[in-house]
Amino acid sequence: MKEFRFGPVEFYLVGFDGDRPDPATFGALTDLVSSGVVRVLDFVLVTRTADGELDILELDEGDGSLALGGLEPIVAGLASEDDVLALAEVVPPGRSAAVVALELLFARTLAQDVAAAGGQVLRTERIPAPVVNAVMDILEQEGE
What we know:
Helix content: 25-40%
Order of helices and strands: EHEEHEHH
Distance between the termini: 49 Å
Radius of gyration: 18 Å
């Protein structure tokens, strides 16, 4: 069986104040990259102007002023313009965000091992962390 070069990819929209992220904003992401949990495949900065226009900047087009603590995407363009525009709909005027395409390295191993055993991952569903935590709190209270 052929080894998978890439695993599943998830897009994250990370909002922040101002038009440039503070390096600390992506400290947790840098830690995950360093520990081998994820790889950053693409990174796009979006800024919604006060009049509602959207400015889009691919990380590789930057002038070096982003200072993202060594985060270097593997490829530009994985997040298509349609992807970026769809995700950026929720960015309010005067705010900025980053569209980050993350490869989940554990999921690549899982998908590859399942395929080697003759199966395939047919679908995954992400439940947002705030929802999981709220439900777990409710279940724990009910169990008391």
